[in-house]
Design a protein that fits this description.
With about 350 residues, the chain is mostly helical. The protein contains 16 helices and no strands.
C-alpha cells in the first residue's frame, strides 16, 4: 500500500477538480527553484539576522535586562509582521531567525531580571501561546507548541506535584491524538493552519519528556520541588495505553473495520500485551501510539519519529530490567518469538489484499 494516496484514492470524483485547483493556487514561486538555491538563500537570511542580533546585543543588551526584554519583544513582533509581508524563502527564513533571536532575548532578559525559573517558564508559555496564533508559519508554530509544552511541564514541575505533571503529560497526549484523528475536519476551520504543526509539536513534547524520564531520570527528578512525588511508571504507562487503545478504536471505525471483530480484538490484545510487558517504560506504548497515527495519516515524518523512538525506548526498556544478563536475554528472546508468532497469526488471519494497479 502506498504511503501517499492520490486524490483519486481519497476523494469522490466530483471533488477532485476543485481539490487540484486549490492545491495549484497554494504553490508559490519557489516550487521550481533548485533545493540548493533555497538552502543558500535561507542561509543568507539567517547569517544576516545573526549579524544584526550581535550588533544590537553589544549596544543595547549587555548588562541591561530591561533593554533585552524590550528589544526581544520588538524583534519578535517585527518578525511576525515581516512574515506576513511575503512567503518567499529569504523573507520567511529572515523572519524566523529574527523571531527566534527575539524570543531568546526576551526570555533570557526575564530570567536575568527576576532570577526566577518559574517566571521565565511562565513568560515562555505566554509568549509561545501568542505566537502560535499570530505568527503564520508552520515551523514557528511547531516550535511554539514544543517550547510552550515544555515550559508548561517545567512550570508544573517547579510549582506543583509530580502527579500533576504526569496527568498533564497524558492530557497533552490526548490532545495530540485528537488533532491527528480529526486533522481533516479541523484543517477546514478558521485555525486550520496550526493544526498539523501543533500536533507535531505536542508529539515531540511527549517523546522528549519521556526520553528525559527514561534516560535521565535523576536530572528529571531534580526539577521537581523537594518531596514531590510522581506517578509510578506503570500508572503512566496505563494512561498512555488507554489513549493508544482509543486511537486504535477510532482508526478501526474510520477504516470500516468492526472494533469488536477479529481485527479489532487482535489489535487491542496486541496493544494491551505490549503495555503490560513494558509497564516500567511508558515511552514504548507512547511511541507505538505515534506509529499508529503515522500509518493512519500516511505521514512519513511521523513514522520516522515513531520508529526512532521505539528503538530508543526499547533500549531503555532493556536497561531498565532489574535482571541478570542471562534473564534479560531470555526475556528478549521470548518477546521476539512472541512478536514473530503474532505477525504470523496476523498474516494468516488477515491476508493483505492485492494492490489494484
Amino acid at each position: 500500500m502506498a504511503l501517499k494516496p492520490s486524490l483519486r484514492d481519497v476523494l469522490p470524483a466530483e471533488f477532485q477538480d476543485a481539490a487540484r485547483t486549490a492545491l495549484a493556487s497554494r504553490e508559490d514561486a519557489t516550487t521550481g527553484m533548485p533545493w540548493f538555491v533555497r538552502v543558500l538563500i535561507g542561509f543568507g537570511a539567517w547569517l544576516a539576522s545573526w549579524f544584526l542580533m550581535a550588533f544590537l546585543s553589544l549596544g543595547v543588551v549587555v548588562g541591561k535586562e530591561v533593554g533585552a526584554i524590550i528589544l526581544g519583544l520588538l524583534l519578535t513582533g517585527g518578525a511576525a509582521i515581516l512574515r506576513r509581508m511575503g512567503s518567499n524563502v529569504f523573507l520567511t527564513q529572515l523572519a524566523l531567525s529574527t523571531g527566534l533571536a527575539g524570543q531568546g532575548l526576551f526570555i533570557g532578559g526575564v530570567w536575568a531580571l527576576t532570577e526566577s525559573e518559574k517566571v521565565a517558564a511562565l513568560a515562555t508559555l505566554v509568549l509561545q501561546t501568542v505566537l502560535l496564533f499570530v505568527y503564520p508559519d508552520a515551523i514557528q508554530r511547531f516550535l511554539s507548541t514544543l517550547f510552550g509544552g515544555l515550559a508548561l511541564l517545567l512550570l508544573l514541575r517547579l510549582t506543583g506535584t509530580g502527579v500533576l505533571v504526569d496527568v498533564t503529560l497524558v492530557g497533552l497526549t490526548v490532545l495530540a491524538h485528537l488533532l491527528f484523528l480529526q486533522q481533516g475536519r479541523l484543517q477546514s476551520g478558521p485555525w486550520g493552519g496550526l493544526v498539523t504543526p501543533a500536533a507535531f509539536g505536542l508529539v515531540t513534547t511527549l517523546l522528549a519528556s519521556l526520553v528525559m524520564r527514561t534516560w535521565f531520570h535523576d536530572f528529571y527528578r531534580s526539577l521537581f520541588r523537594k518531596g514531590s512525588a510522581e506517578l509510578p511508571p506503570g500508572v503512566l504507562t496505563l494512561g498512555l495505553a488507554v489513549v493508544t487503545l482509543y486511537s486504535a478504536w477510532r482508526v478501526l471505525e474510520e477504516t470500516d473495520s468492526e472494533p469488536g471483530g477479529a481485527a479489532g480484538v487482535t489489535a487491542f490484545a496486541s496493544l494491551g500485551l505490549t503495555a503490560a510487558l513494558t509497564l516500567h517504560t511508558p515511552g514504548v506504548i507512547a511511541a507505538i501510539g505515534v506509529l499508529l497515527l503515522g500509518f493512519h495519516r500516511r505521514s512519513v515524518v511521523l513514522l520516522g519519529m515513531a520508529v526512532l523512538f521505539v528503538l530508543v525506548f526499547g533500549v531503555g526498556y532493556y536497561y531498565d530490567l532489574q535482571l541478570t544478563l542471562l534473564a534479560k536475554s531470555l526475556v528478549l528472546l521470548g518477546s521476539g518469538l512472541m512478536l514473530l508468532g503474532l505477525r504470523f497469526f496476523i498474516l494468516r488471519r488477515f491476508p493483505a489484499a492485492e494492490e489494484v494497479r
